[in-house]
Amino acid sequence: MSQEERNMIEEEEDIITLEFDDGTAVDCDVLGTFEADSKEYIALAPIDGTDDVYIYGYKDIDADTFDIVDIDDEEEFNTAVKAFEAAMAEGDE
Description:
24% of the residues lie in helices and 42% in strands. By secondary structure, it is an alpha+beta fold. The chain has a 5-stranded antiparallel sheet. The chain is globular, with a radius of gyration of 13 Å.
């Protein structure tokens, strides 16, 4: 595991509103961005009080803009989840 992966969760105070295909919207805290297999990801937690965490691909557009991307590949998603869980477990030590 690289040093970047060990330090993958960066605390943020930003809130992102996710809009789903069914028209619902969920406000989420940004837990942080992290890297797995040379790809960037973002972890989001709904502020509705649930323990859910959403994992998406993350791409910087420029210094002030980024894009979040659905992860369609199950293997890639599982890799991202494992990297996130490892970072969270490491933070609990």
